[in-house]
Predict the structure.
Amino acid sequence: MEVITKFRWTVVPHPAYSPDLAPSDYHLFGKLKDGLRGTHFPDDESLVSAAKKWLKDAGEEFYRAGIQALVPRWRKAVELNGDYVEK
C-alpha cells in the first residue's frame, strides 16, 4: 500500500485470477508456442535458450500490444463481475 500511495495509483476491482486478464495467458504463451512450433530441442537447455531468444526478439511493440489489450479485457471483466471467459 505504501508504494501505491507513493505513486498515487488507483486500485481497481478485479477477480483474484483470470486467464483472460493475465497477458502471459492471452498474449504471450500462444505466440511463443507458435514461434517455436516445429522445432526439435535435443535438451531442456536448448528449449530455454530458444524461448529466451524469442522473448528478447519479440520487441517492444509486441509487449506494448499485450498490455494495451488488457484495458478492454479488464473493463469487460468488471462489467460482468468477472463472470466471463474470452472465447
